[in-house]
Design goal:
It is built from four helices and two strands, in the order αβαααβ. By secondary structure, the protein is mostly helical. The protein has two domains: 46 residues; 62 residues, Photosystem II 12 kDa extrinsic protein (DNA polymerase, domain 1), CATH 1.10.150. The protein has a two-stranded parallel sheet with strand order 1-2. The protein is rod-shaped and about 90 Å long.
Length: 110
């Protein structure tokens, strides 16, 4: 009887370990898939062209170095001054320097 309990106990332990490893593998794959999706989303955002004269607040904040405050400043500038004539005009917006233009040049349009 003791022998049977030991065998049963070992079998139960092995089965439990197998279940835990399976769950761990599934969770790890789910995290990897989530990370991959996040990278794909970031990559897509980096490729989208942002028109300085037409883009929405949400589109402007996808630019590197442009957060909510700078995106709002770009919109206010457009409302008060009018359309941008060149990408370099973006430096006329308070808080936006040449560095932001350099970081985003391939994504900017007029």
């Amino acid at each position: 009887m003791k022998n049977q309990l030991k065998v049963l106990s070992k079998a139960l332990f092995t089965a439990s370990l197998a279940v835990l490893l399976s769950i761990s593998t599934v969770v790890t794959h789910a995290k990897d898939a989530s990370s991959t999706q996040s990278l794909k989303t970031a990559s897509v955002q980096q490729q989208v062209i942002v028109n300085l004269n037409k883009s929405t607040f949400e589109q402007l904040v996808t630019l590197k170095g442009v957060g909510q405050t700078k995106a709002q400043a770009i919109i206010v500038y457009r409302q008060q001054v009018g359309s941008f004539k060149s990408i370099n005009d973006l430096t006329k917006v308070s808080g936006i320097g040449e560095k932001i233009i350099v970081q985003n040049r391939t994504r900017l349009a007029i």
